[in-house]
Design brief:
Elements lengths: L2 H28 L6 H5 L2 H20 L8 H5 L1 H13 L6 H19 L1
Helix pairs in contact: 1-3, 1-5
Length: 116
């Protein structure tokens, strides 16, 4: 794998990471109560979260210019790891054995793809 592919792979990983951050922001905002629907959707946190989603999409488009299409879904699967980590750390969610097994399968899939 040459350096440009690695650069674009990290670009896609970063885009996936910030998309996960955006999801966390939206979940935090969803827990709040607003007086009306306009304040619910047109507040700074929601606008920032959607701006981050747009940036993530642009990074993905840019990353696909330099990585094989088969690599994209593998790298984007790391989003499940990020969201689970944020859920445990920020929202104090519990991880059961099914989630651990699912995350292990994701990690094994990423490793198998990387080695092959």
């Amino acid at each position: 794998m040459n350096k440009s592919v690695i650069y674009y792979a990290f670009l896609l990983l970063f885009g996936t990471f910030i998309a996960s951050v955006s999801q966390v922001l939206l979940k935090k905002v969803a827990d709040r109560h607003y007086d009306n629907i306009i304040k619910e959707y047109l507040n700074p946190t929601v606008i920032l979260a959607y701006a981050i989603f747009v940036a993530s999409t642009l990074l993905s488009i840019l990353a696909y210019r330099g990585i094989p299409l088969s690599m994209g879904p593998i790298l984007e699967a790391t989003g499940y790891l990020y969201v689970t980590f944020f859920g445990v750390r920020i929202f104090k969610e519990k991880i059961d054995s099914r989630k651990i097994a699912a995350l292990a399968l994701i990690i094994v899939g990423i490793i198998v793809y990387s080695v092959g």
